[in-house]
Specification:
4 copies of one chain form a homotetramer. By secondary structure, chain A is α/β, with parallel strands linked by helices. Chain A has 2 domains: about 90 residues, Alpha-Beta Plaits; about 190 residues, Formyl transferase, N-terminal domain (Rossmann fold), CATH 3.40.50.170. Chain A has 9 helices and 13 strands. In chain A, the strands form 3 sheets. Chain A has a 7-stranded mixed sheet with strand order 7-6-5-8-9-10-11. In chain A, strands 2-3-1-4 form a 4-stranded antiparallel sheet, covered by helices on one side. In chain A, strands 12-13 form a two-stranded antiparallel ribbon. The longest helix of chain A is centred in the C-terminal third of the chain and has 24 residues. Chain A is globular and about 60 Å long. The two termini of chain A are about 20 Å apart. At the A-D interface, strand 11 and strand 13 of A face strand 11 and strand 13 of D.
């Protein structure tokens, strides 16, 4: 059964992501609210961070039969329970496909992985465009019929080029950005335009080996396991909230070239896992850490 | 902070394990019940098996401040919500340490792992005795001051010997049994005396290589990864509900001896993980599968 | 540095794969032979299976400066050392790209993974064609400019259709076949035409869950880890020599659909690892087991 | 079969560890030398670091039948091939058990793991003593009949106390030291007395989270995988050559306490793997990196 089928099976669902100071009775309150309005919960996961005393929740229910009209849920929940508990919250509907832009440079493995999942219908997402600072991957985007935009950047034109990029993203109603081995550091201004909505893949097991040439550093240090990390981009380089990580065992027999080759498999899988979690509204961010529900 | 400290910090807690047919409003009902009686929930996890339409839940709350007296919770919950939803449920209290018997044969690694955790206070458990069909490990039990009982078994005396073992377990109020590389097959009668309360470690990645000599079979088959599996014992050999599994990468360079040596590390860690989950009432069993809450 | 660059750096190399009964002095003999003819060894790995008393070796050396002409190596080695030690051996040259056919059915993830690596130049291989029993993936092959051949098979036309497939493979000088989630069982006749040269991906951790619907079986059995296995195809279903395996941790929260979705990542990565090892002549087969050098 | 049995089976073996600048013909030279003196090689592994142009080799052969007397091998090899190729090399014999000292503080899990392996005969080693800066683990050592020495250290008496420790190590002919969660930084003088012969376990995936409180740091950073690292101690804290690493997946549900509890399993297994490799002379060190043969 594909994701599309599953969606059809459950009909349209609403997804509520919540966090707030932990207090007695929150779960009872939220679930009773859904219950009273005849909402059939198909997924509920909650977490309490006891060190910070914060409550986190993701609840998903079917709209069919729910007695509050879709367009009024936000107001009723927001002015009621959310206000009472001083919640940070977001409401999504499963029939709204988020729109994603992919930024690339010269390496194709992550882009191929993303576009082949997209083409196979694995993700409930729209990808209206690919942006690059090099022309190398134009043929790849073309192969999948995705518009490709080239923005050559250098130190002198960075600010104005990023403005053009942001304009293009806004024209295309882009919800979030995926840096699929994009080898440029985004300015603070760009990052602020998409807070918690730019996903990067870094080719090391962060916080080990941030910055440039992590495979060379891993080789030099002689680690016995290497990794890849997908995280939200913040202004501090390679220090944003981690979404997904994976590792693989290496040894003295692996040259730097071999680490690069083997690392590409980690990179593309880890990035795609992070994108999947983001698309499916599985992620909450608090204090530079993520809660990724299952 | 040790587990003991954590226990003291939260005071005595009650743990409720529930499963029943899935219906709207169960979570709201249970959490409202605890809330109304001023129960501070410190842990809640639930799962819905949509294929079988079964609801599972584990909820843990502090007894301090809870308005129902400890000795009445069972009756009030049982005759109220549990009856209404036709629940299968169990109630535990964190100040009741389960009592565990360890069965061993000749290999010491799992026994050492268990007893060293016990001695270090890692587990909230009592281990009143070790039982074996060989005398080899008597000195190990002695080292930790645990009584060691030798029951030599053979095909002729199996039934009567098992009866003596069961009598000893009952005299010691044993709650559950851990087979720590016990190389004897228990009879159906013995298993029925401890349903879902005998934990075994099998030295393969089940269902691959059940039965005798799994390391030899793994070598013969040329697998590239080997594993260990901890499961509840049922009458069908090596086919009970799986609690925990782990694996490690192997290669053509590993001889059978090497698989055995390396496998021992998997065995002891996987068995101890399963025992930890059992002691902490994290496990629900349904249809020969486990739900192991985090 | 890409694989192509590495190849250029070392120039053309010769690769010798050997196995024979273990005897004293084989390594000295082979390495002295290469040394005497001024062969610069860039890679040597050997293994002795002590249980079966078999010696295995892979040695790779630069042809530049080697005093035996490329076309005579085979004769001189074969009539000399190989005859003396009664070796099974194969000689390859790095400038001969093996020719690979890909068989697919309806699922695209493995095909995309293979073709994107091929297009990116990651593999020293030629892929002249894709064969399928369904038309679904024709557009994928087309996207990469690879000829796509449709052979609809059923129980009645299987023999004659396989003959047509074999004819096509021979016309295209195909060296080995990759079954990239090809959902048809090949006949004994077909397998005999490509002994030890058909690579399959099975979507379970073999020998667990051979045959049809392994994800359903894994779900039913309640395993806590699932896997994928790439192996050479032999006449016994899912029982051929294992080349590569990988696993991922699962839990009660994973539905069958989720196992399928997550399993696809394992499948494509494991299959591609096996293909890479095959292309690079890293694999020896003995007694239904593989030696895969690093 | 135990390690002891294996040893008896092969009789006494000699082990040669070599590294030198890479040149043509080294393998042929060494293997021919052993061959000419009728040495039956039971294990050979070599590695060439092409970036640094260094050759590494471990070769093990049976002394039974070897035509050079045991006590003359060192001279003959050293003045012959080793001198010719300007090798760094060491010669060991399997009947010499290395003598190991264990340093501990308050946590018992690594000590128990080490002593239970020792008692079970898993390692070919002697452990004449345990040293600690706290009295807490004296009963553990006592349980295994190992002498326990308490050296209370503080900033004022550090130098003289270390001198007493070194004296004790020398009196006991200690070959190498294992820091089994020893929570004191050794002085440069102590480290120099046992160069490349002090093995530490650090409770993080180095180079991530060096220094104090790595579990707290891992929690703060929100990593999705945590690890443990065993390495040789050098004067730079937590920066010595890495011998072994392992990792485990964690999530937002893991409190710092949980990381500590789960991390202990990683620590003890990783430390014991490193000790095993060291005891079996599997490790070569070059440029702050290890070659760990299989």
């Amino acid at each position: 059964m594909t994701m599309t089928n599953m969606n059809q099976q459950n009909g349209v669902t609403a997804i509520l992501l919540i966090h707030c100071a932990d207090r007695k009775g929150i779960i009872a309150k939220v679930t009773s609210f859904l219950n009273e309005h005849n909402g059939n919960i198909i997924y509920l996961e909650q977490h309490v961070d006891k060190q910070q005393n914060v409550f986190f929740m993701r609840v998903e229910w079917q709209l069919t039969g729910f007695s509050i009209p879709k367009e009024k849920i936000s107001t009723i929940f927001g002015e009621g329970i959310a206000a009472e508990y001083n919640m940070h919250w977001r409401l999504y509907f499963s029939d709204q496909k988020p729109r994603m832009a992919v930024f690339v440079s010269k390496m194709s493995h992550c882009l191929y992985d993303i576009l082949s999942r997209y083409q196979a219908g694995e993700w409930q997402v729209e990808i209206p465009l690919v942006i690059s600072n090099h022309e190398d991957l134009a043929p790849v985007a073309e192969r999948f019929g995705i518009p490709f935009y080239l923005f050559r950047k250098n130190d002198e034109n960075k600010t104005e080029t990023e403005e053009l990029e942001l304009k293009l993203l806004q024209e295309n109603n882009i919800d979030f950005v995926v840096l699929a081995r994009y080898m440029q550091i985004l300015s603070s201004g760009f990052i602020k335009a998409y807070p918690d909505r730019i996903i990067n893949i870094h080719h090391s097991f962060l916080p080990a080996f941030p910055g440039a040439k992590p495979y060379h550093s891993a080789y030099e240090r002689g680690v016995k396991i290497m990794g890849a990390t997908s995280h939200y981009v913040t202004e501090q380089l390679d220090a944003g909230p981690i979404i997904a990580q994976d590792v693989t065992r290496i040894s003295h027999t692996d040259s730097v070239n071999n680490l690069m080759r083997r690392g590409q498999d980690l990179e593309k899988i880890v990035l795609s896992r992070a994108v999947y979690a983001h698309i499916n509204r599985k992620i909450l961010i608090y204090n530079n850490r993520t809660i990724v529900f299952s």
